[in-house]
Amino acid sequence: MRVRAVVSYDGTGYGGFQRQRNAPTIQAELETALEQLTQTPTRVLAAGRTDAGVHAEGQVIAFDTAWERPLVALQRGMNALLPLAVAVRELVPAPENFHPRYAARSRWYRYTLYRAAERNPLMSRYSLHVPQALDLDVMQTAAAQLVGIHDFAAFGMPPQGESTVREVIRAVWTAQESCWYFDIEANAFLYRMVRLLVGTLLRVGAGKLSFETFTACLQSRERRHVGPAVSPTGLVLKAVAYPAMPKEELARLCEGSEDRK
């Protein structure tokens, strides 16, 4: 049986999602918990390989299991074994061919700025402290240029393959009290793409990079004026969207889930 789950985690202190030999990772935590519960080595697939220090609220994973008890018991067991920094928020049956990465329609990331004269230790884990003056309007005007299908070679490297073309569905700055949020949704992202975009947009907002130069960077594919990449602390994978499942397939999966209750 293939299972799909939504996972949240605090990426502080982790080397990213993907398992590594020389650093703790989210994938290793999940697979270790599953092996303890099921007594079977289990490989976890993910919608995105978040980088070191990046957090997630809606990471989507999938794995195969011969678990015969209710899935809610599997979810509770995983959360009992996982460290406090990682939690399984939802766990449901999925089609046998479901792959969280290749089936995804879009990913939504949010970057948070803490806008205050002095830093706040209670905010530093999940935001970037930016005390200097910024022009939110010009930052939003620049961000609007990102929407659509573009070659984002100037803002990152492809995690696999050679194509650097991506489709951005929305890119919006919003301000709420002492926090500014940059929300960007796309069909896929390049390595460090969001962090490089935010770093470049901050320079636009501070008046250190013109709107015209920012637009030229996007069109030219050159990295000369891009970045620097901001800290991963403010970046969160908020959600991953998928096409709606056919009603017949959904009914079949729900029926199979009922059999395990």
Describe this protein's structure.
This protein has about 260 residues and is an alpha+beta fold. The chain has two domains: about 1-100 and about 240-260, 2-Layer Sandwich (Alpha-Beta Plaits), CATH 3.30.70; about 110-240, Alpha-Beta Plaits, CATH 3.30.70. The protein has six helices and ten strands, in the order E-H-E-E-H-E-E-E-H-E-E-E-H-H-E-H. Strands 1, 2, 3, 4, 5, 6, 7, 8, 9 and 10 form a ten-stranded mixed beta sheet that branches. Strand 8 and strand 9 form a beta hairpin. Helix 1 crosses helix 2 (about 70-80) and helix 3 (about 135-145) crosses helix 4. The longest helix is centred in the first third of the chain and has 13 residues, at about 25-40. It is globular, with a radius of gyration of 20 Å. It starts with a strand and ends with a helix. The mean pLDDT is about 95.
Topology diagram in text:
Layout: E1 2-9, H1 26-38, E2 45-46, E3 55-64, H2 71-81, E4 86-94, E5 106-114, E6 128-129, H3 136-144, E7 148-151, E8 165-176, E9 179-186, H4 193-205, H5 211-220, E10 235-241, H6 247-258
Parallel strand pairs: 3-10, 5-6
Antiparallel strand pairs: 1-3, 1-4, 2-3, 5-9, 5-10, 7-8, 8-9
Spell out the key features of this protein:
261 residues, alpha+beta, Alpha-Beta Plaits, ten-stranded mixed beta sheet, 6 helices, globular
